[in-house]
# Entry
Amino acid sequence: MNPPTQTKTIEMTLKAAPALVYRAWTNSSALREWLCDVATTAPRAGGHLFLSWHSGFSANGVFTHLEAEKHVAFTWHGRLDPATTEVVITLEPAGTGTHMTLVHRGLEQFPDPADTAARFEQEWRVSLPNLEAVLDQGPDLRITQRPMLGVLISDFSAEVAQKLGVPVTEGVRLGGVVDGMGAQAAGLQKDDVIVSVNAIPTAEFGKLGQALAGHKAGDVMEVIFYRGAEKKTAQMKLSGRRIPPIPATPAELAEHLRTVYGEAAASLDKLLAGVTDDEAARQPAPGEWSARETIAHLIHSERGWQNNLYEIVGGEEAQYDGFFDNLPMRIQATVAAYPALSDLVEELRRLFAETCEMIACLPESFLARKGSYWRLGFNALNFSTHVEEHLTQIQAALEK
# Structure
């Protein structure tokens, strides 16, 4: 006799229209906005589905049935699952919104079906409120409710470790700390390399999120890090996340960014007043960027941000394993292509203006994807921190 089928059913009503809910389950970019950290999909019968989280968990499957705005079904095989199960999503109009039914079935294949069913139900009930928040209002609860260390991240590699005198090649290198937040209060500094948070190794950036999982603002964490060759330990209180208000329209967001970029450009002009091409090309120390090389990096960053902006709007995003190293060949190529300091600065100004125009021209249809617009706006408002950090670096290079 076959064992009885074990399923879990969850129902909820969303304010979003069926088309947007259907997209949230089938589009890779949309899945990243509420469920996972990385997703790739081929939304057709027989097409693949792959999801992964920075915690190290992943799941893959195949779409078994798709009916636009009505039905989504796919197989599910978690990283450690002993068997493949199936998730079936049914969508029905409910006024201007959607009544959604999720059925996860095939759980009788597990050694402990009842416990497995309870576990899957709990995991879905943790994730689905974020689906509701992203579709109905826009903010990603994983960001808005997550506590912060208050750090800025920079690239880290064996070459960087050697330069800093750090005896490890895995860790999270700090590009700086945020004023008034936990990391600064605990005494961390730029170029410190965090290797553990609360006894959880942080070999790369994604592990920081894993270490913070389940914690809230005010909790105290033990942080182990290297400052050069010296290994240090600090007690760090987690800070609440500062969420800037996202302007309601693309025009308002673009205008805000014009002000931010204008202030950055004015600060750059002030720093470079009277500086010659030769002075701007001098490295403060072997292996450290000159002012010109730092501006080249800002050019690359702005181009990368524009590409990401384009991908968010298009709903098809490239997959990255982590932060790219700042390869000398790229910096050198850009410096060579813009031989005068004024040329580099002008290119950066044009990119600032182009970014603002891209945002001002966001299509009306994009605004219906509230989670996508919120994510784009959140990233745009936080990107200015990166620019400010490197203006300080340019100032330091010129002073030396």
